């Protein structure tokens, strides 16, 4: 019995372990999106929660507006994470842009929550690398 081999993007020989990392990146994006939605609602309903105790904030903002920005950003991250897991090309592009934006947003809150912000920045770097360099490998699973 002869086996049929495909070449190009659907070639199963090009499948590597990075497919797992790309799936992990999509799951992380969706999870961070859920956490952003929760943080956004906390900022909307409790203005003083994110105010740093020792020093002033990096930027002077209205936390209710910031909360709605986080809610919207979280929804975008959840939808894009779903697309990354299933190998959608648009999700790769949007995912990298959103991960960079999320890194910038978390850097803005570094003085208020240094541990959470550092962890989020590290996860954003993993997401950016996995999706930008190996995002195409998730398409192999979709076409195989």
Secondary structure elements and their pairing?
Elements (H helix, E strand, L loop, with lengths): L17 H28 L17 H23 L3 H20 L5 H21 L2 H7 L1
Quick overview of this protein structure:
By secondary structure, the chain is mainly α.
Q: Could you explain the architecture of this structure?
A:
The chain has one domain. Helix content is 69%, strand content 0%. It contains five helices and no strands. The two termini are 20 Å apart.
Radius of gyration (Å): 18 Å
Helix content: 55-70%
Order of helices and strands: HHHHH
Work out the count of structural domains.
1
Largest beta sheet, briefly? Answer: none
**pLDDT < 50 runs, ≥5 residues:** 1-7
Structural class: mainly alpha
Question: Cα distance, first to last residue?
Answer: 20 Å
Total DSSP helices = 5
Give descriptors for this structure.
5 helices; transmembrane; transmembrane helix; elongated; 144 residues; DUF7144; Membrane protein; mainly alpha; membrane; single chain; 0% strand
């Amino acid at each position: 019995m002869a086996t049929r081999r495909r070449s190009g993007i659907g070639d199963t020989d090009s499948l590597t372990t990075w497919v797992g990392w790309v799936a992990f990146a999509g799951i992380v994006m969706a999870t961070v999106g859920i956490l952003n939605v929760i943080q956004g609602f906390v900022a909307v309903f409790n203005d003083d929660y994110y105010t740093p105790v020792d020093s002033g904030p990096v930027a002077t903002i209205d936390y209710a507006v910031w909360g709605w920005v986080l809610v919207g950003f979280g929804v975008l991250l959840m939808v894009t994470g779903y697309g990354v897991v299933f190998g959608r090309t648009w999700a790769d592009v949007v995912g990298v842009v959103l991960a960079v934006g999320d890194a910038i947003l978390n850097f803005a809150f570094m003085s208020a929550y240094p541990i959470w912000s550092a962890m989020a920045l590290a996860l954003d770097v993993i997401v950016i690398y996995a999706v930008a360099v190996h995002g195409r490998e998730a398409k192999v699973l979709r076409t195989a």
